[in-house]
Amino acid sequence: MTIVDALTGLKIPVTTKALVIAMFAPNNNAITIMETTTSRPVQTLTRLAARGGVELVNFSPDGRLLAARYMEAQASQRSQANGGVPSSQVKIWDVVSGRELQTISPGSSPSKVGFSADGKSLITVAGQGEVVMWDVA
Fold first, then answer.
1. Strands 11-13 and 2-4
2. Which domains does the chain carry?
3. Whole-angstrom Cα distance, residue 110 to residue 89?
4. How confident is the model at residue 18, as a pLDDT?
5. Which residue of 5, 17, 39, 134 is surrounded by the most CB atoms within 10 Å?
6. What would the pLDDT profile of 65-120 be if each residue is shown by its tens digit?
């Protein structure tokens, strides 16, 4: 099965093992976890910050964790120090409990976020090619 992103037109493959999907909207801090078979929402993950929103998400291989990159809507002192590049945070969520487990603040805004095969590390890749591995175990 393939889902097509209505905004970008990108095709997102979904295997038959996928039981849930993460849905979010730009400029919104909420991520809704939905069952793929029933379209029933099972969890909502919401960060407390009021500015910015979810930019991208990625599940860990076992589906227990979700990494979400959030962009800040307005320039902060930190982003001005980075030459005007918007600051971002990556939050690790426990999908079942809905708890935020960890916040990562990379030096550069990552264009890609993904888990290692064992789910114990998160890899961020910045637009300039900077690759960083973070311990999330």
1. antiparallel
2. 2-135 (2.130.10.10)
3. 9
4. 57
5. 134
6. 999 998 876 544 554 454 554 568 899 999 989 999 999 888 778 888 999 999 99
Alpha-carbon dihedral of residues 137, 99, 54, 56, nearest 10 degrees? 30
What tokens were used for 100?
């935020």
Please check whether residue 106 is in contact with residue 132, taking contact to mean a CB–CB distance below 8 angstroms.
Answer: yes
Residue type, 105: S
Quote the CA–CA distance of 71 and 114 in Å, as a whole number: 17
Predicted local distance difference test score (pLDDT) of residue 13 = 58
pLDDT tens-place string over residues 26-53: 778 899 999 888 888 989 999 886 677 8
Name residue, tokens 């209505």: 6
| Phi, psi angle pair for 113, to nearest 5° | -140, 130
